[in-house]
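User: tokens in, sequence out, please.
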């Protein structure tokens, strides 16, 4: 099985790239949230185990997450090309994935964007409070300031996207990500892409990196 781990800060565009690969090139895009939701909906034994932690307001422990991913991959054909998004987040998780032949990671790709640009991308987001349509004050401004193009509803900034929260989110990401970069670098499985380029350009570079 070909397993690629996507590493990148919030706002780095890795989710968008994964979706394009899934739609156009037959990749399976597995985000932690999707895996959890699917297992809980299917009421598998490991899904119910995970649900218990979530219901109690706790994080799903590593061993349960690994079991979930292992089970999810086991249900896919051996020829599948997997994009893991949002997992592993720690070196312990990365080691645990590698411990099983089925979940051993083939490569990792880091979507590199300077943090000042991530700040601009994330704090500029606005969401229509009525229909949920996303906008951006710089990159995708509405025709009329603060008003949704689709339904005329008022645009709001999510609490997660305010400057102080974004700054903290990026700091937390940085702290967690650096050891992972070192881990995959040391095992010759890290490729870095400059993700501060247009979506199409990044997709072309990404496809090259995956071969
Ligand atoms: Zn709207």
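Assistant: Sequence out:
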């Amino acid at each position: 099985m070909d397993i690629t781990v996507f590493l990148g800060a919030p706002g780095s565009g890795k989710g968008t790239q994964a979706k394009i690969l899934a739609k156009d090139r037959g990749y399976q895009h597995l985000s932690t949230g999707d895996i959890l939701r699917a297992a809980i909906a299917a009421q598998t034994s490991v899904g119910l185990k995970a649900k218990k932690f979530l219901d109690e307001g706790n994080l799903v422990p590593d061993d349960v997450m690994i079991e979930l991913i292992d089970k999810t991959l086991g249900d896919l054909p051996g020829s599948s090309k997997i994009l893991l998004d949002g997992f592993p987040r720690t070196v312990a998780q990365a080691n645990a994935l590698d411990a099983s032949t089925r979940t051993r990671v083939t490569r990792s790709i880091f979507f590199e964007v300077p943090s000042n640009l991530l700040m601009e991308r994330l704090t500029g987001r606005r969401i229509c409070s009525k229909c949920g349509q996303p906008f951006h004050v710089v990159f995708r401004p509405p025709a009329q300031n603060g008003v949704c193009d689709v339904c005329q509803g008022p645009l709001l900034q999510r609490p997660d996207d305010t400057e102080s929260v974004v700054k903290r989110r990026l700091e937390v990401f940085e702290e967690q990500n650096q050891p992972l970069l070192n881990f995959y670098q040391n095992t010759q499985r890290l490729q870095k892409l400059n993700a501060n380029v247009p979506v199409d350009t990044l997709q072309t570079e990404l496809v090259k990196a995956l071969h």
